[in-house]
TrEMBL record:
<protein>
    <submittedName>
        <fullName>MFS family permease</fullName>
    </submittedName>
</protein>
<feature type="transmembrane region" description="Helical">
    <location>
        <begin position="229"/>
        <end position="247"/>
    </location>
</feature>
<dbReference type="Pfam" id="PF07690">
    <property type="entry name" value="MFS_1"/>
</dbReference>
<feature type="transmembrane region" description="Helical">
    <location>
        <begin position="35"/>
        <end position="57"/>
    </location>
</feature>
<dbReference type="GO" id="GO:0005886">
    <property type="term" value="C:plasma membrane"/>
</dbReference>
<dbReference type="InterPro" id="IPR020846">
    <property type="entry name" value="MFS_dom"/>
</dbReference>
<feature type="transmembrane region" description="Helical">
    <location>
        <begin position="275"/>
        <end position="298"/>
    </location>
</feature>
<feature type="transmembrane region" description="Helical">
    <location>
        <begin position="198"/>
        <end position="223"/>
    </location>
</feature>
<keyword id="KW-1003">Cell membrane</keyword>
<feature type="transmembrane region" description="Helical">
    <location>
        <begin position="69"/>
        <end position="85"/>
    </location>
</feature>
<feature type="transmembrane region" description="Helical">
    <location>
        <begin position="310"/>
        <end position="332"/>
    </location>
</feature>
<dbReference type="InterPro" id="IPR050171">
    <property type="entry name" value="MFS_Transporters"/>
</dbReference>
<feature type="transmembrane region" description="Helical">
    <location>
        <begin position="129"/>
        <end position="151"/>
    </location>
</feature>
<dbReference type="InterPro" id="IPR036259">
    <property type="entry name" value="MFS_trans_sf"/>
</dbReference>
<feature type="transmembrane region" description="Helical">
    <location>
        <begin position="91"/>
        <end position="108"/>
    </location>
</feature>
<keyword id="KW-0813">Transport</keyword>
<dbReference type="InterPro" id="IPR011701">
    <property type="entry name" value="MFS"/>
</dbReference>
Length: 370
């Protein structure tokens, strides 16, 4: 892999060490301000709405202003907003900073992903994105332990730690990544919303991301000790890292089936060891999904529109961040924890069935969705 890719992955891993705070946003709101879970879900949804324009702006700036500059803007904005959440004296103030965090939260994702596509040939992109995901998982080991420790003490300090790691990542990016290339001039030629293959990927990505973000945001509310979500996050990360050398062909269908098994297990688990065992299944499923999905989108993108293509696909995470806390907390209150997890498992199996039959015609590998 090119040196720039390794440096970028290292910088993002530093940031990932603190990127666990959003898992506990709903718990913080509910416990600190004494509001019901649905109100906490609304705050998280406001954050999610703000991530949608953030992602699109990040893609535009990545193509027009430059990759490194856009990454720095996002990291610094996140640091300020996380600090604001940590010291917010009221629910209204916290909500304002949650929205500001959403507006900065996705800025650095499209330029990071586009920088990898710039540096790596098509045949190696799945591997490169998988390495990025594995590095995030490795940092997630430390993040999960920090969350389990700090979260038992004071949930607000989770956001302080997150702000510090954002600043540390920004310093590394500024010092080690190459300067931006000259900005492109003239009108953009590629209208991303006209690409049917990209629209298909957006649909698949939105459903998957909604399931994933529901796990992230609602899992702590279903546990006897909410901070145990940090332990489960650590288990998932360890599984992802350990499995990297053994996966030669990444299959979306198999990944979705394994994730569904994880969710069914959550519905029937009665102890932390059982939750850990089923989390391992989900970690293996993620191993088959993340790198392949991103590589498909990168392969679809014209050279002059990588940032915008990756950003357009990435808004699936913004949609999910809006839908997940609302649907997840509603399902939890109306159907209970078991009903929540079994519903998500059914949705995930539907994704498995769909990707087993679907094709994206413009990708480099004919079986990319299998």
């Amino acid at each position: 892999m090119p040196r720039t890719v390794w440096l970028l992955i290292g910088a993002r891993a530093i940031n990932r060490l603190g990127a666990f705070s959003m898992t506990f946003l709903t718990v913080l709101v509910a416990t600190e301000f004494g509001v019901p879970a649905t109100t906490a879900g609304l705050v998280a949804a406001a954050f999610g709405v703000a991530t949608i324009p953030s992602r699109l702006l990040g893609g535009y700036l990545a193509d027009r202003v430059g990759r490194r500059t856009t990454i720095l803007l996002g990291l610094l904005g996140c640091a300020v907003a996380q600090a604001g959440i940590a010291v917010a004296p009221s629910l209204a103030v916290l909500t304002v900073f949650a929205v500001l965090l959403g507006l900065a939260f996705e800025l650095y994702e499209p330029p990071s992903q586009a920088m990898i596509a710039d540096e790596v040939p098509v045949a190696l992109r799945t591997r490169a994105y998988s390495l990025l995901n594995a590095a995030m998982a490795a940092a997630g080991l430390g993040a999960g332990l920090i969350a389990a420790a700090v979260g038992r003490w004071d949930l607000r300090w989770l956001f302080v730690v997150d702000a510090v790691t954002c600043l540390a990542c920004a310093i590394v990016v500024r010092l080690v990544l190459p300067a931006d290339r000259p900005a492109r001039r003239g009108p953009a030629r590629s209208a991303v919303w006209r690409d049917r293959a990209l629209l298909a990927m957006l649909g698949i990505g939105t459903v998957f991301a909604t399931v994933y973000m529901t796990i992230v945001m609602v899992l702590p509310l279903t546990l006897p000790v909410p901070a145990d979500a940090g332990i489960l996050s650590t288990v998932a990360a360890l599984t992802l890292i350990a499995g990297q050398p053994f996966v030669r062909r990444q299959s979306l269908t198999l990944g979705f089936v394994l994730l569904a098994a994880n969710l069914v297990g959550y519905g029937f688990a009665d102890s932390l060891p059982e939750l850990v065992a089923f989390t391992v299944l989900g970690g293996v499923g993620e191993l088959f999904l993340m790198g392949r999905l991103m590589a498909i989108v990168a392969d679809l993108a014209p050279d002059d529109a990588r940032g915008r293509y990756l950003a357009f696909y990435g808004i699936c995470w913004g949609f999910a961040t809006v839908i997940a806390p609302l649907a997840g907390t509603w399902l939890l209150e109306s159907a209970g924890a078991r009903g929540l997890w079994l519903t998500l498992a059914g949705v995930t199996l539907a994704l498995a069935a769909g990707t087993a039959r679907a094709r994206v015609t413009r990708v480099a590998q004919p079986s990319a969705l299998r």
